[in-house]
Amino acid sequence: MPSLDVIRRALAAHRPERLPIEDRKRAAVALVLRPPRGADPAHHVPEVLFIERAEREGDPWSGHMAFPGGRIDPGDRTSRLAAERETLEEVGVDLADAEILGRLDDLAGHRSAGVPGIVISAYVYHLPGDAELSPNHEVRKAFWFPLDSLLDPDRQVDYPMRRMPDMRFPGILVGEPDRHIVWGLTYRFLEVFFEALGHPMPKRWNFDRA
Question: Are 117 and 109 a contacting pair, CB within 8 Å?
């Protein structure tokens, strides 16, 4: 797994794809990295911050594993500032002074009944030290997870979606089985991230993701 310096250089060279906005709604998330405790900052393999969203009626991502983030408000001057605001609100982590390592490709959420999917932007940050996590009411749990363990074959699982029980989505087990599984858009952002680093994730999609 690349060190922070390698990640920094790889993301600096990455040219993210930006999707046309048109009449779509927009959201932004933060992929936040930190050094494991007691590690040499120059050579450590970082940990990544995940949240488990609270169960909320009407929330299309209710209960999902995700990066902190949410919809872009009219008062947000940029998508990056929206990601930082949402991270502070959801888990109490202030990214204003964190190192911005880069931006990932925009992704589009699921579309239905002819309605375009939401466009989601993702930004990668590095926190040089520890940060206390203070989840708000939107977050059931927040925790750090070793970045290199996301590529562990033993953690690659299939995720059955409740609304489509016959379909299986690629997922990564990061905590309790049947509960803490990264899949969907968060999984796809990780694909973009690791591809930019030259460490592609296994190609496990076997259906149309549009």
Answer: yes
Predicted confidence (pLDDT) per residue in 146-197, tens digit: 999 999 999 999 988 766 667 889 999 999 998 999 999 999 999 999 999 9
Q: Which two tokens stand for residue 4?
A: 């922070």
The reply to whether 29 falls in a domain is yes
Residues in the chain, how many? Answer: 210
For the chain, where are the alpha helices, taking DSSP H only? 4-13, 79-91, 184-197
Whether 169 maps to a domain, the answer reads: no
Helix (H, G, I), strand (E, B) or coil at 104: coil
What are the counts of helices (DSSP H) followed by strands (DSSP E) for the chain? 3, 11
E strand segments, the chain: 26-34, 47-53, 65-66, 69-71, 99-103, 107-108, 119-126, 139-146, 156-160, 168-173, 181-182
Q: How many CB atoms lie within 10 A of CB 157?
A: 16
How would you classify the pairing of strands 26-34 and 119-126? parallel
Largest CA distance in the chain: 51
R_g over Cα of the chain: 16
Determine the structural domain holding residue 15 and report its residue range. 4-151+182-197
In this prediction the pTM is 0.90
Four-residue CA torsion sign, 171, 162, 135, 88: positive
Residue 176 inside a domain? The answer is no
